[in-house]
Amino acid sequence: MYTIAALYHFTRFEDPAALQAPLRAVCAANAVRGSLLLAGEGINGTIAGPRDGLNEVLAHIRGLPGCAGLEWKESTSDSPPFGRLKVRLKKEIVTLGVPGVDPKAAVGHYVRARDWNALISAPDVAVIDTRNDYETAIGTFRGAVDPETESFRDFPAWWEANKDRFHNKRIAMFCTGGIRCEKSTNYLISQGVDEVYHLKGGILQYLEDVPEEESLWQGDCFVFDERVSVGHGLRQGPHALCRACRRPLTPQDMERPEYEAGVQCHQCVAEHSEADRARFRERQKQIALAKARGETHLAGG
Predict the structure, then answer these.
(1) What pLDDT digit, counting tens, does each position of 155-165 carry?
(2) What would the pLDDT profile of 95-106 be if each residue is shown by its tens digit?
(3) Which among 151, 185, 261, 288 has the fewest CB atoms less than 10 Å away?
(4) Would you give the DSSP letter of residue 150?
(5) Using an 8 Å Cβ cutoff, are 229 and 237 in contact?
């Protein structure tokens, strides 16, 4: 059994580069894999490993400057959620691309999962999904506005073009684990929006805390690991990942004539050249050979 921890924490790292190698070393020493991002504004990522090993890594992260109050969201998987470990330096731990946005200064009102239904059912509340289009495609809250953004950094332009739609509305925002809402709610506050709320712990907390029979969530939630999606109770969903475009696929999608495992799906068949597809086929061949030897290929299965 693998324990998965989704985490983020906004704090001030004066020298994030100095934190990179020790963090990578403690992960490697404890058989913890996944992806962690370090920036001057803090840390973000999802990691997985054996329970004891994960505890060691989380203790290390809590010991970083300003991270004593680190919180994370846990779930489990029977198979390895990640094939490798990545600890990277970035300008932002979640990229909005707007100078001056600072969640440490102000964010929206946190709303607990069990109070979320009442808020988003109110007639004066507009609910906005801050995730990307490939995520919203497989699930969202009933009645939520989908900005249809390809990237989180597209959100400010979308808001500027659509803000008049939300005049005299309270704004409720949500994302997978909460991090994007930290920035998007701070951004809306800077734009003069008076009442902004966001789902504490994100969709993952909601799916864990709210019984399915009471839920206003429809579909599945995309996650950034080999489970691809989860549903209520954080049970693994039915989706697989297209290895060419990284979009989620249903079992029905994989029955379509355009689908070729590891090479293309109906969503990206027109996006790649024949040279790309030849490269993808070679990668898929190497994955199959590694699997036959009982090994894990870095590109995934």
Answers:
(1) 999 999 999 99
(2) 999 999 999 999
(3) 151
(4) S
(5) yes
